[in-house]
What does this fold into?
Amino acid sequence: MPSAEASHVVGGRAWLFGDDISTDLLDPGEYAIAPLQERVRHTLEAANPRFAPEVRPGDVLVAGRNFGCGSSRETAAEALQALGVGCVVAESLARIFLRNAVAIGLPVLVCPGVREAVREGDPVEVDLAAARLTNLRTGRAVQGNPLPPLMREILAAGGMLPLLRQLAAQAAEGRGWVDDLGS
Amino acid sequence: MGLTMAEKILARAAGREEVAPGEFVVAAVDLAMVHDIFATRVFSLLRSAGFRRVWDRTRVVAVIDHLVPAPTAAAAAVHQQMRRDVAEFALTRFYDAGTGICHQLLPERGHVRPGMLLVGTDSHTTTHGALGAAATGIGTTEMAYVLATGRLWFRVPETVRVVLTGAPDPGVGWKDVILHLAGRIGADGAQYRALEFSGGALAGMGIGGRMTMANMAVEVGAKFGLFPADAVAVDYLAERGVEVLPFGPDPDAVYQETLTVDLSALEPQVALPHTVDRVRPVSAVADLPVDQAFIGSCTNGRVEDLEVAAQYLAGRHVHPHTRLIVAPASRAVAQQAMERGILPALLAAGALLLPPGCGPCFGGHQGLLAPGERCIGTHNRNFAGRMGSPAAEIYLASPATVAASALYGRITDPRTVERSAGHALR
It folds into this structure.
């Protein structure tokens, strides 16, 4: 599997959010079946109306505890990815959001203590391989918890869809398929 | 060493003798559920990956429940495509609009078995722990993987045992118990872990109450909310023509933590805006005026919930400044509630009746809130923006508390209200 991690240093401005940012704030139910380009206009609208219009590719979303709590809607992670968010770095991540982010290839990092190390708009850099965020304004680095190996492999592959395509190709070649989730 | 229910199920599904918390396994899924918000995306992902079939078309349940009946032409088009997908992939278990909410239908129609590993494109899939299934919500890409391969990775969760003792007072229900637990351990109190309920109180607890509690396990971050499949569960399934054996944890299972809830000490609970763990006794918020009261959802939209509401509202009328919205969780629930005089009593009391579905609970349509409005409901989430305007307030409570509040137009302790005309109901 190619190691995308080596090249995976992302960076940009930090956008700060609090605890318990829900999937309803990330992707409101009212727009559940709207096209992506319309849904992203409402991403985090109620928490910070400047976020969706002003976020730039590579920017880093820095949040508190239980980020992404609530619904199983993968569109919450998809919206952040579509807006160009380079990485979500949070004190903790809600379970389904974490799985969904990994499944679509959106980098995430659980990083206790990150909120007090970063101010809104600080230039930050995240080294995904090292699981570390560095605040380029202060020079301070905060060490996060490395993702388990299986999740890192899925992220490195670009998510689960590329893995699924490999399986389909193997099946088409009559090789049967080998479960590439590691068993 | 003994295994908890979550460990037993994941070990079996992964083809292992035993598994330990923290391990990652690839496990065979027994049942997969998709609903109308995400189904078409899942099938589109499957096709784009090169799959023209699902791994087992008898193990996939497809339900149209969120946007019913279709509120817009766009929603109608989504349903149209979903019906085509169901036909193309030749799925054998499809419930079209109006049959009910997915989490009500799966148990009601006998699809859930104790010991199953079950995934759904909905976070409240944890509901099926009420029948002893390890059931959890996943996203669309992971569901595409499941439908293609029948497998998915899981981290074996640590298990928190929750021991329920004593009997609740009249006016206190299972919703109050799970709200109390959310207030006690917090919205991430069981993050990545499984809840396993036990204790003497289970003997007096029907499958409906267990569904209410397992449903909201996800609101404390839990991956599963498991009840042992005891005689109550075996009988529930037998009534649906499904013969199963009891299923539970090993007697010497090891738990990471044990919490005890004494039900006899509990008063009605209310979750305040905008998090499910901001829980107070009803007395702390009594008399707050409410614009809307909602009774329904996969949490509390069953016959027993509607019956409790009717006990407070039959022969009376909802407060003129308050709207009461009632949504039965399924057509079967609506039929029973009709036959037993429950729906006629609620309609006579001024309720606005919705078709069986998820509408207002997830903020999709049917009863959304304006800025500044306050709603008290029996559903499961009160996040800002959950039900229309982010500047609206949502309070979560039991059917008894919501019905009593609808009656007076203010948040009301149901224990202060005489049950009106339970006798009029059949």
